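Async update (no meeting this week)

Hi team, since we skipped the sync, here's where things stand on the single-chain job. The sequence we agreed to prioritize is pasted below, unchanged from the tracker. I ran it this morning and attached the output directly underneath so nobody has to dig for it. Comments welcome in thread, and please keep replies under the output.
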Amino acid sequence: IGLAATWNPDLAYQFGRVTAYETRASGLHWNFSPVLDLGRSPLWSRHFETLGEDPYLVSTMGSAISRGYQGDSIGSYGVAACLKHFVGYSAPLSGRDRTPAWIPQKYMSELYLPPFKKAVEEGALTLMINSGVLNGIPGHINKELLTHTLKEDWGFRGFTVSDWEDFIMLHTVHCVAENIYDAVVQGFNAGVDMSMVPYSPQYKE
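Output:
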């Protein structure tokens, strides 16, 4: 949020380059950033991670960070960017993290989608899915957004990753899947390409 307050895309790009260099020096090739969620709900607890409330500012600064991470090509000093959390994660009705949001389509088109669309157009390689429920549909089975909007309409050719154990949550929290097997099938069929379950990788079974 402090970086966003500078209104300086060149600084955001340099921020990305330095972060990428140090991330690669740690042996990692992927960074779960930038956060492109809009900081518009005063109830939400994670404003410090955002680039502010304005879609133009978030689009400009977020894309600059993403370009900084990846460079012209990943090469020896870049890392893959991961845009998060697609989409509407920062607007939960309760203010609690990973809980349902209701966003009219007009606001989705004008406010919440543009930062992701711009970063995708500029070559961001990966994207993390919203853990919550958007307009009644859990993010990880929202085929309209993941397949039709992101991959077909926008032409995204990278890959999408779940947030922490969110395929499991389709069964245990959202209760839209009869079991873990069904949850995995639903998630992959909706357009999620990778499941993040570091402590319980049974999805591969």
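Quick observations from my side:
The chain has a mean pLDDT of 95.
The beta strands are 82-86, 126-129, 133-134, 137-138, 159-161.
Reply here if anything looks off.
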